[in-house]
Design a protein that fits this description.
Length: 196
């Protein structure tokens, strides 16, 4: 919501300035900001559609977003920082979603939910250690398991949304095992969505 608010403020400013004599000059000066805002709105629209999909509404239709994990993880990280938590950085680019990954929203929602639930259970100021590694044979999302966290309800939801995936929960942490065909190795990518 914060990212959408920022975009709305920029567009409202544009609307007010376009009506003034200097509006055209302002548009030229801020064209890079407008282009960036347009991309952010598109990315945020995807994330909102993922959340709506988890609630039963199909807003994605046929839209697929290869950067789905990156977009959701970036917004989870931004929300965690506002809540006094964080995710440890992952040194490699996140893999890209393949077209075979369900309807396109389930895997990003599951990954975001697992990271959110785990990170918010840590003491304030600590970052959740996690990783996502694999290849065409299979992928594994791993994270530490904060003390006292109960993943039973989320595990049932994971199984219902992704029956081919397997969530293993141990005393030290959890692992989400995914079919290799669902993800493709990430490449060096342009800077991702950031919400300040």
């Amino acid at each position: 919501m914060h990212g959408l608010n920022n975009a709305t403020q920029l567009l409202a400013s544009l609307n007010a300035l376009v009506a003034e004599d200097d509006g055209e000059a302002w548009l030229e000066r801020r064209s890079a900001d407008l282009a960036r805002t347009s991309g952010e709105i598109e990315d945020l629209g995807y994330v909102l559609a993922v959340l709506a999909g988890a609630s039963g509404a199909d807003l994605l239709g046929e839209r697929r977003e290869a950067r789905g994990l990156e977009l959701v993880v970036d917004l989870v990280r931004a929300a965690l920082r506002r809540a006094g938590a964080d995710l440890a950085p992952v040194p490699t680019p996140l893999p890209r979603l393949a077209r075979s990954a369900g309807e396109g929203w389930e895997l990003p929602w599951v990954v975001g939910s697992l990271l959110w639930v785990s990170a918010t259970a840590l003491p304030t100021g600590e970052a959740l250690a996690w990783s996502l590694e694999g290849d065409g044979d299979g992928w594994c999302l791993r994270a530490e398991r904060p003390e006292g966290i109960d993943l039973a309800v989320l595990a049932e939801r994971v199984h219902s949304l992704l029956p081919e995936a397997r969530l293993e929960v141990g005393a030290e942490g959890w692992s989400l095992l995914l079919p290799g065909r669902w993800l493709e190795p990430g490449a060096e990518q342009a800077p991702s969505l950031s919400v300040s």
